[in-house]
Each structure stands twice: as C-alpha cells, then as structure tokens.
C-alpha cells in the first residue's frame, strides 16, 4: 500500500498543481451548479471530455505492458463512431432503443474485430507492434471515410446522444462507462493471474513461454481489449456531438493515450503497468486542455504551452532528474563562498 | 437550382457558339491553349476565334487534342471528399461539365498533394485542353504548373489559391473571398448592435490555426467590428473546424465568461457543436447568445431555420457553372480576370427557412 501510494504521488501532485493553478487563476473553476437535473461546471466537463481518452489509455496501458503499442486506436475511434451513426441514420425511427442498441453492438463487434486483426498480426504473424498497428492506423481512417462516404453523418437520436452527453445521478453517463471498464480491467488483471501474465510477457516473452504462459493468447487478449476500449471511446465521442466525422474523430488520440500512459508511470518497455496512474495521466491531459481554453491562451501558442507543461510533468516524474536537482541544491555555492571560507580558516 | 440551370443553358449555348465559330475560323480549335497563355500577358492577342490564319495554321499542325467538333476536355484534380461542402463542390463541377458538354476527367486526391501532382501530370500527358484543380496546400506547385505551362495547357485554380510568385503559371483563380465573408459577418453584427450602449461580449471559434479561411475570416470580421467600440472579442480559440472541438471550447468559454452575447464561428460545424454546449448550459442558442457562422451547409442551414443560428454567410461550393464559363472563355482565347469571386449570399434565420428546401448541399 505504501509503495503504491508512493508511485501515484507525482502524477497526483501534478494534477493537484494544475487544479491549484486554476483555483488561484479563476476560483469559478471549482463551482458546481445543478442545471437541468445534472451537475454543471468545469470539473464535470473535464470528466466528460476526458472519458474517451481515459478509456483509450486504459486499453493502451495493457498493450504497452506487454511491450507493444497500439497506434490504431484513433482510427478505431473514428470507425466505431462512423459505424454506429451510419446504422442509426439508416433506421426508420432514430430514437428507438432497439436500433441504438443494435448500432452500439455492431460497432463494438467491429472494433473487437479490428483489435483481433491487430492481435493476430502481432501474435500470429509476429510483426512488430508499431508496424502492425500502423497499418490499421493509416487504413482505418480510410475505412471510416468509406463508411461515412466522406461526409459528416448527423443523427438525431436522444437515446444515442445519452451515451456521450446524458447524465446519470447528476454525473455524465460516460464516466460510469469509464468506471465500469476500469473496474473490469482492474479486477481481471489484479485479482486474477492475467495481470501477472501480461507483465511476464512484457518483461521477457521467451522466459514466460518457457514458464508455461501462452503468450500468444495474452497478446491477442490485450489487443482485443484495446480495440474494445477504443470502440467505446468512439461511441462516446460521436454521441457527444451526435455526429460521425470520419476525418477528424479521434485524430492523434493514440499519441494522447500513450502520453497518458507514460505520465501514469507505465514504462514503454513493458513489464509493469499502473491502471490508476493512467487514469490520472488522462485527467492531467484533459485538465491542461481545459485550463488552456479557460485562461485564453492564444491558439497559435497553445501547443507550445502544452508541450512545456508536459515536459515539466515528465521531468518532475523522473527519479534521476529529481535527484540531480536535490544534489545541486545541497551543494550550492554562494558567490562569495570561497572568499568567506578563506577568511574563516 | 433555377439559377444554375439557366447558367448551364447559357454555357451550352456559348459552347455551341464557340464550336461553330471555330469551324468558321479556319479550324482554329486546336489553338485552344497557347493564345490564352499569351492572353494573360498581352491583351491584344485576346480576340476570340479571330486569330490570324498563319498562327492557327501552325497550331493545327501540332497534334490538336480537340479539333473542331470535338468536345473540350477538362482535367479536374479535386482535393478529396472531406466534407459535405467538398462533395457539393464536386457534384457541381460534374453536373455543370456535363451540361456544358465538356469531356471531364476527374480525379480525387484524398487530401494528398502528391496524388494531385500525379493527376495533373497525367492530364498533361493526355493533352487535355484545360486543367483545373483545388490545391490541397498552398506551396509546392511551381514545378508541375511549369510543366503544364510548357505543354501549353492553361490552368485554372478553384476554391484555394497557390502561393507562387509567378502568377503567369495559372490563368485565373475562382473561389470565395474569405476576408469578404468575415466582413459580411462583421457587417451584420455591427448593424444588429448599432444602438448598443453597453459592451457586447463576443467569443470567436477559429478554424484550424494558420489555415487561410481561419486567418481571413478572423481578419475580415475584426476589421468591421472595429467600427463600434462596444463590440468586444473577449475570447478567441481554435476549434479546428470540427464539431467536437467546437463543443469542448464553447463549454470552457461558457464557464470562463459570465456574459457572452455573441458567438462567431468560422464554420457551421463548430457552431453546431457550440449550440450543443450552449443548450447543455441551459441557455437558448440564437436568443441568449446570438450566433454567426460561415459556410451554409445543410446542417447549419437547418439549425438556422430553427432559429439557433442567427446569421450565416454563405461560402458557395457550387462554382461549377463559373468554372465552365471560364474554361470556355480560356479555350476561346478571351481574356479573363485573374481573380473570379464566387457568387455568395447571406442568410438570416428567416431566409434560411425559405431557402432550405432548395439547397443542394
């Protein structure tokens, strides 16, 4: 418990620092009101808009834990949203629950199939994960545009809109989806041996195979799960704006997800993973984005500001950097120190 | 629709006239390309279909792609099919080319410059009469345009400009004037709030940072609202021309600023996303917050007809008829202006309601 706390300390501290900055800069940031039966405020926005990223990042964490990487998540996000919106827009009664459920089911099955494709390329064919998923990253955007015929498909279905913008017990519904997926992933990996298997495969595939782990199936499972997470994220994103945009939905999501995983403390070399850290990492990214909008950073330099904060976050998290800082501080010299020392002796 | 039909008929008529003129004028059809190139340099050489016999003789000696009676061939390299706007643009070009009786060779570059360059090169090899294209990006066109110029094929730019110092590389640029669109949006706002005695807080959703429409629409708008010191842009942030970003940024704006009177979005999609954010905040879009948008695509017009968008400046994708007219003029050797601005309107909510059933896109 102590070690765990220690591990989460820096990500949490960074999140707290960002929130503290907001508290000082605009105290309204933390105000929560009840409007139209649900809570309303910046914190709720962060949870709502951050939920797709949290989902994708949770899936990504397990893939990275096996020493792999999944670059195709952004495309899967686009495909899932496109598929769901297409199915709903084809239906006669867009509001009917049956239609929405079948659309959701269809796109989740599709995203599982895409995850399976990645998994087979990595575990079956033995391709490098970065190349294997790069294929789907590039081709997937094309598939999404094929599904939408290059158009933005708008749907007018309240039941579909509920996934991304509805609220349950005053909180955004999407956050409950994240909680469910997070709980499932946590239980499966920490309460069964699966987590150990994943870490073993990530640390040393050959040794884990000799120890009797079917590493192929483990790999297949993590890519399947990552595809599913990206699919759910795609549903949330597209339902939030009630439309599917094959071109822009989930663009560069893979990079944000990888960043969230890294901020959370998971090493890109695999063999160790921290799901809670990942969620906090995703929250840091989303809080940063919202903060930038709130304080009115000019759009031309937004990316620079973001890069700077991310750099600070990563440096602060680095053990070596912190120790170097501490050493410098302890052995600091004053301008006249040497002279003073001469006189003293 | 009516208008384009009429224009189309006009085009058919004028192309027929051209063919007959070419027949009379010593088999002059083959000289389609080079006179137009000269036309852009010296106005004296721009007499239509009445080129001196010696010149036309030398021209018809070279392999002529469209001898008299043959169709005019037009190679069009489209950007892609990234939005409803673009699809309407493509449809307009295809249908008006068919109406004008041109032989249209169409290619879709899928948002990649290299594909477009390939397409243009293949048009040069096929010796089409005119090449038209919408450049994906602004720079990097000099080489391929030089090749077209050397082959004597006139090039027409549509919708987007190229960033080239040598403007003899293309005949004309047909497209919207983004600055003017911004000005029109600004004009409407100034008119609406001309009696304002207190500050009007405006938030702006910009397009993709650095893109021409975003820069120009911002500049044109700022230029006009400067007339009234009460009109103040209190926040301006990019929404990347997408609904999702438009919604996210607008939600932050709503939290960061207590009083927002006007939203100016650089395209309809961002406005549509922002409308959802405004509704989620329990406000009425179009009433509590006035919304101005640019583009007038179908979803935007629908929102306008419901009163959620107060004013839309059209960015017309239906530039097919104007393009065909220009092609005809170029082939006929007429001098045409270097810049042709597309015909565009503006819509208030009421006008949007009336216009909506007749919209093509």
Automatic annotation (TrEMBL), chain A:
GO molecular function: transmembrane transporter activity
Annotated keywords: Cell membrane, Membrane, Transmembrane, Transmembrane helix
Listed GO CC annotations: plasma membrane
InterPro entries attached to this UniProt entry: ABC_transp_permease
Record field: transmembrane: 7-26, 46-64, 71-89, 95-117, 129-148, 168-188, 217-237, 249-266, 273-295, 301-321
Subcellular location, record wording: Cell membrane
Protein's membrane topology: Multi-pass membrane protein
Domain of life: Bacteria
PANTHER family, per database record: ABC TRANSPORTER PERMEASE PROTEIN YPHD-RELATED-RELATED (PTHR32196), GALACTOFURANOSE TRANSPORTER PERMEASE PROTEIN YTFT (PTHR32196:SF19)
Protein name, per record: ABC transporter permease
Organism per entry: Cohnella xylanilytica
Record lineage: Bacteria, Bacillati, Bacillota, Bacilli, Bacillales
UniProtKB/TrEMBL annotation, chain B:
Record domain Periplasmic binding protein: where: 80-335
Leader peptide range in chain numbering: 1-21
Coiled-coil regions, chain positions: none
Keywords: Signal
A single MF term (Gene Ontology): carbohydrate binding
Gene3D superfamilies for this protein: 3.40.50.2300
SUPFAM superfamilies: Periplasmic binding protein-like I
CDD domains in the record: PBP1_galactofuranose_YtfQ-like (cd06309)
Recorded superkingdom: Bacteria
Protein name (database record): ABC transporter substrate-binding protein
Organism from which the protein derives: Cohnella xylanilytica
């Amino acid at each position: 418990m102590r070690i765990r706390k220690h591990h989460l300390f820096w990500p949490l501290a960074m999140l707290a620092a960002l929130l503290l900055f907001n508290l000082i800069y605009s105290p309204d940031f933390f105000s929560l009101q009840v409007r139209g039966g649900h809570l309303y405020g910046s914190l709720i926005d962060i949870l709502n808009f951050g939920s797709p990223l949290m989902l994708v990042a949770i899936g990504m964490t397990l893939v990275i834990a096996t020493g792999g990487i999944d670059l195709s998540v952004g495309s899967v996000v686009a495909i899932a949203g496109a598929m769901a919106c297409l199915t709903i827009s084809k239906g006669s009664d867009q509001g009917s629950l049956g239609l929405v459920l079948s659309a959701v089911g269809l796109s989740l099955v599709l995203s599982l199939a895409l995850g399976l494709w990645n998994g087979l390329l990595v575990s079956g064919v033995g391709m490098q994960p970065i190349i294997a998923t790069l294929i789907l990253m590039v081709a997937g955007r094309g598939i999404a545009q094929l599904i939408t015929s290059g158009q933005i498909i708008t749907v007018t279905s309240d039941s579909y809109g509920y996934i991304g913008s509805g609220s349950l017990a005053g909180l955004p519904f999407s956050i409950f989806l994240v909680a469910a997926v997070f709980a499932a992933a946590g239980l499966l990996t920490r309460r069964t041996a699966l987590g150990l298997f994943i870490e073993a495969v990530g640390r040393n595939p050959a040794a884990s195979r000799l120890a009797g782990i079917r590493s192929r199936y483990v790999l297949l499972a993590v890519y399947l799960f990552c595809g599913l997470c990206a699919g759910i994220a795609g549903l949330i994103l597209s339902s939030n704006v009630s439309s599917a945009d094959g071109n822009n939905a989930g663009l560069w999501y893979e990079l944000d997800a990888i960043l969230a995983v890294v901020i959370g403390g998971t090493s890109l070399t695999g063999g160790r993973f921290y799901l809670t850290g990942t969620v906090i990492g995703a929250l840091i990214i989303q809080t940063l984005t919202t903060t930038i909008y709130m304080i009115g950073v000019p759009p031309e330099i937004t990316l620079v500001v973001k890069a700077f904060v991310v750099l600070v976050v990563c440096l602060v998290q680095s053990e070596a950097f912190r120790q170097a800082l501490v050493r410098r501080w302890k052995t600091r010299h004053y301008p006249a120190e040497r002279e003073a020392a001469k006189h003293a002796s | 629709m009516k208008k384009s039909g009429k224009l189309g008929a006009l085009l058919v008529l004028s192309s027929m006239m051209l063919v007959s003129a070419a027949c009379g004028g010593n088999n002059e059809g083959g000289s389609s390309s080079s006179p137009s190139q000269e036309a852009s340099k010296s106005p004296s050489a721009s007499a239509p279909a009445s080129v001196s016999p010696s010149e036309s003789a030398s021209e018809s000696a070279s392999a002529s792609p469209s001898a008299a009676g043959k169709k005019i061939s037009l190679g069009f390299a489209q950007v892609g099919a990234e939005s409803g706007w673009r699809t309407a643009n493509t449809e307009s070009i295809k249908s008006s080319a068919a109406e004008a009786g041109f032989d249209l060779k169409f290619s879709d570059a899928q948002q990649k410059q290299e594909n477009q360059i390939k397409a243009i090169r293949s048009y040069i090899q096929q010796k089409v009469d005119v090449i038209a294209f919408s450049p994906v990006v602004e720079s990097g066109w000099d080489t391929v345009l030089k090749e077209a110029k050397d082959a004597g094929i006139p090039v027409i730019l549509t919708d987007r400009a190229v960033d080239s110092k040598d403007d003899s590389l293309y005949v004309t640029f047909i497209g919207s004037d983004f600055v003017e669109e911004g000005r029109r949006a600004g004009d409407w706002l100034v008119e609406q709030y001309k009696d304002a005695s207190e500050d009007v807080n405006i938030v702006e959703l910009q397009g993709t940072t650095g893109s021409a429409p975003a820069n120009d629409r911002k500049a044109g708008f700022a230029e006009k609202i400067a007339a009234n010191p009460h009109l103040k842009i209190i926040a301006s942030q990019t929404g990347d021309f997408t609904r999702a970003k438009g919604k996210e940024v607008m939600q932050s704006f709503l939290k960061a600023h207590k009083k927002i009177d006007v939203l100016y979005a650089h395209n309809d999609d961002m406005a549509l996303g922002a409308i959802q954010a405004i509704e989620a905040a329990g406000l009425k879009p179009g009433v509590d917050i006035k919304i101005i948008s640019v583009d007038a695509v179908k979803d935007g017009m629908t929102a306008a007809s419901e009163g959620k968008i107060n004013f839309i400046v059209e960015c017309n994708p239906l530039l097919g008829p104007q393009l065909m007219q220009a092609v005809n003029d170029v082939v006929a050797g007429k001098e045409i202006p270097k810049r042709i601005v597309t015909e565009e309107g503006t819509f208030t909510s009421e006008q949007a309601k009336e216009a909506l059933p007749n919209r093509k896109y």
